[in-house]
């Protein structure tokens, strides 16, 4: 039997860890044996698009493929169901008898149908077909916007005749939640796993710390994503549903157009959402946002306050928006 050639597929996010992972892959296996792929959520900062899709390809001499989740089938199903309700069928006839009724009326269904069309923005389309935004407890965004499109990309390479190593830039010391997720059972975390069917997972920087990551950039002469110099501790969605209070305050101060964009998304998703469903980007009761009114504009106002909520943090507001606020000391 002829062994299949191994292809090293690196998932690129535009963040420091995936960039360091790409550097290791290139050094060990050469560009010609690697593929680089970026899952576009449609909720990234313009600096991340420029960094991942323009700067890194030029600086590393690579091509970065882009994958986007597509929800055309889900839109068609949801539209067909709402059309039946708008035509007068009761919700129970369309969706069956459920513990929770969504209280769709003919008028609400007709109103939803006017705006329920794919936008081509994966994050927004996902929220429209799901009828709400993801939350820390129901973090379906990662699965639908990243894991599934990236897995499909890897499986397509296997179908082409390759064995695929999927390179993942995760680190144990990145966060408590990541540590507990990776070490869930207390068993030794494996940097390499054979999934089967020609697919394996490799986590080359699993035990690196953040200094190692930036050192790898420096040794290769690669700039980190400029967002790290602008107060962002991690690079991903702008904003991420899990972003901290301080990070949200920094986003609102430096990138108010992204807050305005998400506020508009809240309005659109509300129109296609069942009544009483959460339509806020940040959910009530999640760590860091507990007990606050939860439209993004409300949460931004809260993010500007000191602990206890009443008083605005004047020092935070006074910080010039162009000052370096890197959490990693990159300018030292
Ligand atoms: S970065 Fe945050 S908002 Fe974006 S897909 Fe991941 S968890 Fe969801």
TrEMBL record:
Pfam families, sorted: PAPS_reduct (PF01507)
Name listed for the protein in its UniProt record: Phosphoadenosine phosphosulfate reductase family protein
Position of the signal peptide: none
Gene3D superfamilies assigned: HUPs
GO MF annotations in UniProt: catalytic activity
Species classification: Bacteria, Pseudomonadati, Pseudomonadota, Betaproteobacteria, Burkholderiales
UniProt xrefs under InterPro entries: PAPS_reduct_dom, Rossmann-like_a/b/a_fold, Sulfate_adenylyltrnsfr_sub2
Domain Phosphoadenosine phosphosulphate reductase: 9-70, 139-242
Superkingdom as given in the UniProt entry: Bacteria
